[in-house]
Amino acid sequence: MNYHTPVLLDQVISELQPSIDKVFIDCTVGHGGHTQELLKNLAIVYGIDADKNNLTTATSRLNNPNFHPVLGNFKDIKNIWQKHIGKPVDGILVDLGLSNNQQSSEGGGFSFNDTKSIDMRLDPTIQETSAEEIINTYDETQLYLLFSKVAQEKFARPLAQRIIAARQKKSIKTGVQLANIIRDYYQSKHFRSSVDPATKIFMALRIEVNQEFENLNKFLIDSQDIIKKGGTIAIISFHSGEDRIVKNFIKQNNFKTTRFLPTQTEIKRNKLSRSAVLRVYR
């Protein structure tokens, strides 16, 4: 299996400083890339993920008695900690990006090439609103605000209008349909983009569907009640809005902090790391 490549791995491990019997929470364990390194240093890791398939993959891959998988969302970290741990932990890690299997798989709706879905819910069993519903029911103003404020898309208004015109002819039900609407607009205006023109819109939809800004704010507050004094929290974000939330929280609390960006070598090796920002605070 092609496991997801962890981003900024060396920096995360260097800052968390895992060692025997130290307890960590990996709030978005994914395929367990970061956790694997923590376990190699004989730490104890509670790995949380809202995607049960990722959790199953990580558990099978790691196969370690010091790894404790937990199905859940990192916004509920305090309740999870109370149920499974109950004592202050040494460190917490959050990687706010999608794993590569989520980005490329058919049926999840995260991929530009998904011919089956544009769902984007991490856990459809408990989440009601999908990206398909948003794209097909939001009015022009709602789409414009989502695209301009969250996606920071400079063509937010005309793209909202294009989407509404397209859905009036036929409901938008797949990632391919939506991506092509966006690409077609860029091509019609002869606009060029260094990444796929659909990238920012898809990310904004994912953030909206999974309430990622709200979840991050809740996590930041609740994590303070479960971390040891002097403990380390590391957060990897891929969106300027998420990074701004983290940065402002650190500033408001006067925490000692360090910021890391991927090297050009890492970006060449793993293009998904190109927009990553790691902020570590104690």
Q: Can you describe what's shown?
A:
The chain has helices spanning about 10-15, 35-40, 50-60, 75-85, 100-105, 130-135, 140-150, 155-170, 175-190, 200-210, 210-225, 240-255, 265-270, and strands at about 25, 45-50, 65-70, 90-95, 225-235, 255-260, 275-280. It has two domains: about 10-100 and about 210-280, Vaccinia Virus protein VP39 (Rossmann fold, 3-Layer(aba) Sandwich), CATH 3.40.50; about 130-210, Putative methyltransferase TM0872, insert domain (DNA polymerase, domain 1, Orthogonal Bundle). α2 links the parallel β1 and β2 (about 45-50). The protein is an alpha/beta fold and about 280 residues long. Strands 3-2-1-4-5-7-6 form a seven-stranded mixed beta sheet. The longest helix has 14 residues, at about 155-170. The model has no long low-confidence stretch (mean pLDDT about 95). The protein has 13 helices and seven strands.
